[in-house]
Amino acid sequence: MITHYTNDFNDYLKKFKEKFKEYFEKYNSQKDNPLFNKNPYQDFYDDVIKKLQTHTLECPHCAHKGHFIKYGTYKRSIKTPFGMVQIRIQRYMCKNCGHTHALLLSSIIPYSQLLIGDALKIIRATTADEYKEIMCNNLCIDESTISMTRYQFKKHWKERLCAAQIQLDDEDLIFKCFFHYNRQFMQIRRIKNKLYINTNTA
Fold first, then answer.
1. Mean of the pLDDT values across residues 100-121?
2. What are the phi and psi torsion angles at 93 (to 5°)?
3. Fewest beta carbons within 10 Å, which of 2, 59, 85, 165?
C-alpha cells in the first residue's frame, strides 16, 4: 500500500463548495445512470494520478523504484457531506517482486470509509454539541460511527501518540505517524504502507 501526501479532500470541498453542491444534486438523481459515473472526489483523485511520476514510487515490499505498472482498479466508498460516494482506487504491481499495492491519498484511512479530517474532528470533540455539529455537517456520520472511531483511537492509537510524543493538533501528524509506525494515522490493519511525497515543483 502507498499513501500519496496531498491536500485534504475536505479542503478541496470547501474551495469548490457551490460547484460540489450543484454537482451532487445532479449526481444523486443520476447516480444509477452508467453515463453519469463520475464525481468531484473522483476528479480530485484522478488528477493526482495523472500528475504522478510512477518511476519515483518505491515498492513497500522490495524497496525498488521504477518497476511499477498499473494493475487495475477497485471501488472504495467514502462518507462525504453529500452522501456515500464511490471512487475508483488505482492499483499498481511491482514488476520486480510481483506484489500489488493500492495508491491511496493521505485524506483516506486504509480500510475505513471515514476521511482522516472527519476522524480527527470526532477524536478532538469533547461535548455533545460538537458531536451533533459533526453529524449535521456530514449526514453519513452517525452516533455509531462516532463511538467506533473513538473506541478505535483509544484502543490502537492513543498510547502510540503518547509514546512518540505526537499531538493531535500537530500539522505534521501524518508524517510523524509514518515515521514512527509506518502507517497512516488511524490505520488499524498491520499492512505495509509507504508514504509518498511528490517533490516535483514544476
1. 92
2. -120, 135
3. 165
